[in-house]
Design brief:
mainly alpha; 6% strand; 65% helix; three-stranded mixed beta sheet; homodimer; 452 residues; elongated
């Protein structure tokens, strides 16, 4: 597509260029324009867009591009874009812009919109209130289907979704919900009260945005109504925003599991120092925590020098323990996050992990024993690996896997119980703990069985 | 809720029980009924549901519960449920049921439905075709808004979504798309052709279901049209199914990153042996791969015995390398999966990771050096830690972090280039490679600087 745009741009074939651009989906236009480094050209092409497409494209840009464009806009252009975009998108943009631009934006919106934006901005970050939009269709219970259609036709153009309609009383309490589909399936003179769903599922403004999005997905809603403490309907969260929230939360979980402080800036747009800031805290903490393994090794230093063949298995034992524990912790973290298991399932989980650990432990220690005795000792003729040494290493694997899986499955649940995010209890953290435990088990058996 | 149901059930207050149950959202009813161990009671309660609610609840159950219920159903009951559910849900269920139940299901559906189900079942697993439903609203371009409304009112009850309408020609080619919202915003006698969107975005039946779902989310669609090789519209994927696909793919990615063979069965429903099967392949592979680190240690065994203080730092060096590499690989895997970076960005990525690695390396090696010299040597009086030893350890950290980050960021990109899933190149795999590299760097510097 870019080649075609470049060609039309170079030949100053503006009419064709305009037509071509305006036929592309706004999400694609945004991607195309963001890939252009020449800022003047980008602004020029953006100005080719029709008012509506321009606004739809604008909300798809990342915040840097939005900031640059706003700086290039005249007040009239800014107003045109602001008039077309939804209030939740406007609030998102304002949250990320520097003060001077925020002032310009607020100066160019009407009083009503400004107040609506300010309401959303007041809710805590990551709350349902902070991502909702007040642009929903509200109906009254005594309206007929035909009244409802008229109202939707009249006011629908400004609503983020028209397909789910909310029925409120005089004090704006949410008393029912219906859909355009239901409206279609009833007769024009049926009253809404007679077929609306009265058992309305809603979310509170202060609930977490992830809770709201998961509930929306669970109930297959196109929008989730958001109510205040008095059950007054104040906004809705639409399904497209819920998907974005779920994807962001997944990314955050994955980052935490990899010992990274979460960020929602795309990789290539994060500066080196920003990336460093997100990665160094856990690296430092984990490095310092590894002091404990160094201490354990120091204590056993002399014994190790006496039977140095034991040193060779340290990395393998540590990795196997870490991997086993990591599998358990990551499985539990994900299940907690998807709501498949709960704090009360802890004993079921431990019992299950214990059984899995026993089977995994038997398989791995048998393979390890066979490998040491057949491959290393008999085929490669490494005479240092005696039956006793192979036995100690294999026994360590068996016991360390049981410990690793139990530690791996309990720590995320405890973290959740204490109100922390279970995701930080993933592989890197578990590995550090399991390393120490594995070494203690290893040297314990070595001392006992090999009498060193 | 369960207490109330139990109470009504015990008192045989069937009228109230029926009323109470049918007011609950089907997703919640499914959860409640699944928590009941007594199968007879579950079937009894299920039979209290109205036909429509029963069907909506049925598709929310897991496959085990569905199978048990079908076994308890009479043919009439089965037919009633099947008549109400959507074709994509029916296909999902059939795919998971044993042959005897599949036969019963197909015997109780009409020919048309049976053919539609068979079409979906023929598409490869995880393809767009395998999750689509043929129940969409199709319009003709010369219809007026009022014709369209009539058609939606007449046929809409059986469609999975009515809000996005597809315009097809006589040969079922997809030539346009419009929405109920657009229909509302135009006059009753306007012709669809005049306002329909002709630049239609669609997905091919054989495209990956994840690609389809990501595209739906990118364009904020409520449904994604699926076309065959001849651009004939054969089905749609609705937004609720797309969310489920995205969540499943996220779970799979996370499992792969933790060295687990992916599964979509919830944790507590997977048997011990199933869980073992998913975890043992990677554990075994990684354990055997760790042989290389054992070999390296064996080679340097004598040198280590000569200066045994060096042994103590092995776990710390291995963990730090593994964590640094894991951070890089997981970041890149996620960015690849979200489409934020592409194969062509490889040099940008390497350059960025190199810079991040240098800053991380400087920070960590300085902290490590300070800790060794000040804390361990001066305060704890460990005289084995000489300036040279501290220097070797710190220098190893610096260099290993650079290697780890470069390995961590390139392997997922190479995996993608070769057509593998980048997610398997996460922490556990990277750790095994980085371990070996770290040890070589460590012993290299030790030999050079400490002349052992």
């Amino acid at each position: 597509m870019m080649e075609c745009i470049d060609e039309l741009h170079k030949n100053r074939n503006l009419r064709e260029l305009k037509k071509y651009l305006n036929e592309i989906n706004p999400a694609d236009i945004a991607q195309l324009l963001e890939s252009i480094d020449d800022e003047k050209k980008r602004v020029f092409l953006f100005r080719m867009l029709s008012k509506e497409t321009a606004a739809e494209t604008f909300v798809e840009f990342d915040f840097d591009t939005q900031e640059n464009l706003i700086r290039a806009f005249s007040d009239t252009e800014l107003k045109e874009v602001l008039d077309e975009i939804y209030i939740d998108d406007a609030a998102d943009i304002i949250e990320e812009m520097p003060a001077s631009i925020v002032k310009r934006i607020l100066r160019n919106t009407d009083t009503e919109t400004r107040e609506a934006i300010n309401t959303i901005l007041k809710y805590p970050e990551d709350s349902a209130g902070s991502i909702m939009t007040p642009e929903f269709v509200d109906l009254k219970k005594d309206m007929t289907v035909s009244d409802a259609f008229k109202r939707i036709r009249r006011t629908g153009v400004d609503k983020e979704t028209i397909y789910t309609c909310y029925v409120t009383d005089e004090s704006r309490h949410l008393i029912g919900v219906t859909t355009v589909r239901e409206l279609f399936l009833n007769d024009y003179d049926d009253t809404i009260e007679d077929f609306m769903e009265t058992n309305v599922i809603s979310i509170n403004t202060l609930d977490d945005q992830e809770t709201a999005s998961r509930a929306l997905s669970k109930y297959d809603f196109l929008a989730m109504p958001v109510v205040d403490m008095e059950n007054r309907l104040v906004g809705i969260i639409t399904v497209d925003d819920a998907i974005d929230v779920l994807q962001e939360e997944n990314t955050e979980d994955i980052q935490k599991m990899a010992a990274i402080v979460p960020t929602d800036t795309p990789y290539l747009k994060t500066s080196v120092i920003e990336t460093w800031k997100k990665r160094i805290p856990w690296l430092l903490l984990l490095m310092v925590s590894a002091t404990i393994t160094s201490q354990i090794l120091t204590v056993f230093e002399n014994k190790l020098s006496a039977l140095s063949v034991l040193i060779a298995f340290i990395p393998m034992l540590m990795d196997t323990g870490g991997n086993s524990g990591g599998q358990a912790s990551v499985t539990i973290i994900r299940s907690l996050s998807l709501g498949e298991i709960d704090l009360k399932d802890i004993f079921k989980v431990i019992w299950k992990e214990f059984q899995v650990a026993v089977v995994c432990g038997i398989s791995l220690s048998l393979v390890c024993f066979a490998k040491l005795m057949l491959l290393d000792r008999i085929i490669f003729g490494n005479s240092e690996i005696t039956f006793a040494v192979a036995f100690v290493v294999s026994l360590t694997i068996f016991i360390e896997i049981i410990c690793a899986k139990i530690i791996g499955c309990t720590l995320p649940i405890f973290a959740k119980k204490l109100g922390f995010d279970p995701a930080v209890m993933a592989s890197p953290f578990i590995t550090t703990i399991v390393d120490a435990v594995s070494l203690l088990i290893y040297f314990g058996f070595a001392t006992l069985i090999l009498s060193i």
